[in-house]
What we know:
With 278 residues, the chain is α/β, with parallel strands linked by helices. It has helices at 12-23, 35-47, 62-75, 106-127, 158-180, 199-203, 212-224, 251-273, and strands spanning 3-6, 27-32, 51-56, 81-84, 133-137, 186-191, 235-237, 240-241. It has a single domain, classed as NAD(P)-binding Rossmann-like Domain (Rossmann fold, 3-Layer(aba) Sandwich). The chain has 8 helices and 8 strands. Helix 1 (12-23) links the parallel strand 1 (3-6) and strand 2 (27-32). Helix 1 crosses helix 7. The longest helix is centred in the middle third of the chain and has 23 residues, at 158-180.
Amino acid sequence: MKTALITGATDGVGRVVAKRLAADGWRVLAHGRSVQRGQSLVREIEVAGGKATFLRADLAALAEVRRLADTVKKETDSLPLLINNAGVGSVGETRGRQESADGHELRFAVNYLAGFLLTRLLLPLVKASAPARIVNVSSAGQQAIDFDDVMLTRDYSGVRAYCQSKLAQVLFTIDLAEELRGSGNSVNCLHPSTYMDTTMVRQSGNRPISSVETGADAIMQLAVSPGLAGRSGLYFNVMDEARPNPQANDPKARTRLRQLSLELTEAFLLERERPARS
């Protein structure tokens, strides 16, 4: 039985994808923050004859991202599918600029940096499962990253923060695809659908205009479609290959983002590798 990890799997489109993968015979590692929603998802999958395990973590803390990666490694020695789906919208429960547990702008931290770190930590497991796929759930809402103020300490807006974090996912996807070239593994990203009927969309004050089932169709295409075998570094608008914001095609911007992301997570990497004091 093949194993898939889905972040943000207990609600919205992630929940639909988790149930579909389980129905197709995958063992699903379902990440989320709510124990209640996580347990109910596992029950639904098991009642339908599938197999799932709930993994709790708050991706607003890099320490929890690291703990999640460690838990995944204990749960499985093979990971042919990783779907980075978890995220926060342009407007949260409180308005204004918010920070993660590590002092980073919240949307950049959760929507991008958590997935970056989780993927880097699980990459050896993914590579060992070739042909494996990584799917990054991004958005058509994209705005060029301001490398002089990535954390948006000036002129902040929730929409700008969201769109910048989503474009960061696209840059990461293309950059990682180059790294994986020739390995038999692939990574692609997508805008699943516009204003799906999800908690995130409703909290942002927008009226849903598409279904989570439509978004799930798009994610499943990148996750399992035979037609995308061996194709990598692509951005899809729902079901169709599309062009992202021009910054995604700038090698210098991708390199700069990679270096920044490694710097922002390096302290946690070093802390984990440091021998315990006697």
